[in-house]
Design goal:
By secondary structure, this protein is an alpha/beta fold. It is built from twelve helices and nine strands. The structure holds ligand C2E and magnesium ion (3 copies).
Length: 282
């Protein structure tokens, strides 16, 4: 890629200057270094799985979302918003996704041993590229067998992007996983471009209202209208609905008043290591 940039720089003559802008070069070098580091991250055991609680109308924890973190030796905790896209571009999403699933399933198996935690679900984010990889379904099956996790406690969070291409193939994979007991949540709902017809055709269990709509729901009538619509759409299609990014009691009350009875957000807890989860609190 560097060679190509060089070639293009030379070929474009005067514009070459742009490619040697020191600031831009620093960005490119930094990115290349991150890519190399990410390749090593799994091997060096630098990934951490954090969990954020999901609660019901009584404030009781009903499950968690697993959110990956990268503890970089020099940079500290790197956000998945930063390295997941990088992993997607560099064919690293497969192995990282596998690690996340396996770690979450091991946690489920551990929770199954105690009556206070046995009913908790874990929601795991699955990237479109990961879901479409050859052998994904078989891999999930193997991980469940290896860890002994109950598939009925596992929820996969997919995004609308996944639903835009090869719908038939995606649908049949979802069907297979659902027959095993796994459930599906449609993450960041409303931010993508998917057609409402997919909602009817795909075996979904839950809509997850994106935090960008939740954030201003109290002040912005348009956001309020969108959230109300998503909630009633979910009810009409007999899907569960959960709101993400719930930061204040006023938000929670508004959502409850409009029929949304599952919540995730800083109001209840930040994503944290499993040991810090308040599993008996409400
Ligand atoms: P997401 O799946 O939509 O996850 C929700 C994000 O919102 C998380 O950011 C979470 O920490 C943050 N959040 C939760 N509650 C609140 C709140 O009350 N207020 C605000 N402002 N933010 C809140 P995080 O952990 O940085 O993850 C960002 C994104 O990275 C995730 O968005 C997801 O798309 C992706 N991601 C995280 N872990 C994984 C993973 O294991 N695999 C894949 N493929 N993607 C992942
Ligand atoms: Mg998610
Ligand atoms: Mg989300
Ligand atoms: Mg989001």
């Amino acid at each position: 890629q560097a060679d190509l940039a060089m070639y293009q720089a030379k070929a474009s003559g005067r514009n070459a200057l742009r490619f040697f802008d020191p600031e831009m070069q620093a960005v490119v070098v930094d990115r290349a270094r991150m890519e190399g580091d990410l390749r090593q991250a799994l091997h060096n055991e630098e990934l951490r799985l954090y969990y954020q609680s999901q609660v019901n109308a009584d404030g009781c924890i009903i499950g968690v979302e697993a959110l990956v973190r990268w503890e970089h030796p020099a940079r500290g905790m790197v956000s998945p918003a930063e390295f997941i896209p990088l992993a997607e571009e560099n064919n690293l999403i497969g192995p990282i996704g596998t690690w996340v699933l396996e770690t979450a399933c091991r946690q489920l198996a551990r929770w199954a041993q105690s009556s206070t935690t046995e009913a908790l679900d874990i929601a795991v984010n699955v990237s479109p590229n990961q879901f479409r990889q050859v052998g994904f379904v078989e891999e999930v099956q193997q991980i469940l067998e290896r860890t002994g996790a109950d598939p009925r406690r596992l929820k996969l969070e997919v995004t609308e992007t996944l639903l835009m291409e090869e719908v038939e193939d995606v649908r049949s994979r979802m069907e297979t996983l659902r027959c095993m007991g796994i459930r599906f949540s449609l993450d960041d709902f409303g931010t993508g471009y998917s057609s409402l017809a997919y909602l009817k055709r795909l075996p979904l269990d839950q809509l997850k209202i994106d935090q960008s709509f939740v954030r201003d729901v109290l002040e912005d009538p348009a956001d309020a209208a969108i959230v109300r619509t998503v909630i009633s759409l979910a009810h009409s299609l007999e899907l569960d609905v959960i709101a993400e990014g719930v930061e204040t009691e006023a938000h929670r009350q508004w959502l409850f008043h409009h029929g949304c009875v599952a919540y995730q957000g800083y109001l209840f807890s930040r994503p944290c290591p499993v040991a810090e989860l308040a599993l008996d609190a409400h």
